[in-house]
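REQUEST ID: PR-0412
SUBMITTED BY: lab tech R.K.
PRIORITY: routine
TASK: structure prediction, single protein chain
INPUT:
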Amino acid sequence: MRQPVRLFVFGLGYSAGAFGRAMLPRAAWGGGTVRNHEKARRLRAQGIEAIVFDGTQPGGGVAAAIAEATHCLVSVPPGEGGDPVIVHHAGDLLASSALTWIGYLSTVGVYGNYGGAWVSERSTPHPRSERSLRRLDAEAAWQTLAAKCDVAPAIFRIAGIYGPGRNALNNLASGKARRIVKPGQVFNRIHVDDIALTLAAALEREAEGIFNLADDEPAPPENVVEFAARLMGVPVPPVIPFETADLSPMARTFYGDNKRVSNRRIHVDLAVALSYPTYRDGLARMWKDGNWRGD
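STATUS: complete
OUTPUT:
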């Protein structure tokens, strides 16, 4: 790294928050935004300078923080009116003389349906859901803004996120786990710690371009539930055919996209060795450590 990292994160949620905490010992300065004052107070107690930004108006103190930041990560989803960070803070980013890198967290949903075939960063996106269409538009907007800022932009397309508090073990314990089967359907996943690990590697290199953040093994969702049940020593939930499953419209759109996501680029270009290359590694470790329930 050519200079001390002064990191600012738009949207300190589940994934970006894990990254922010991982960067605390490595960054000379760090902070970011949250949507309410209660969460801001909790993060400040952890040593992260949090600023309230709810996306409806500029966040007080954000402009001053951006002026000091060398690296910026964006984890705020776009809305009907576009990307709220660009809407309210593009000018602050353009005015910065310290900024050298921008990262944007997107989703593998932008690829759309590939019928179970492999996709890489070179695959053509053809999203079908409104949410994924907005994400693809936001990717383009951030690439354009980063170019105007004369900084290296990186787009991270993330697979299904799991970790403490968000996993099949937790779903089984709460009675919410279902083993829905759609023949031929596979998903990739990635543990939240591996997201933080990969983002740190990208920031260290000031990497640019598109990166798929996914595990090594795309797998049917019912396999994950079965493995978690056997870990816990509880009955495996019965099979529910996809056609008869009671799913929300959003959940049903996830099953409409079927693809295997290649993560080769993070291994080769970022030298990342995932801590949890398969869902079995991640679930088994959380079960062993007893941290699967989260906070």
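NOTES: Residues 130-149 form the longest helix (20 residues).
REVIEWED BY: pending
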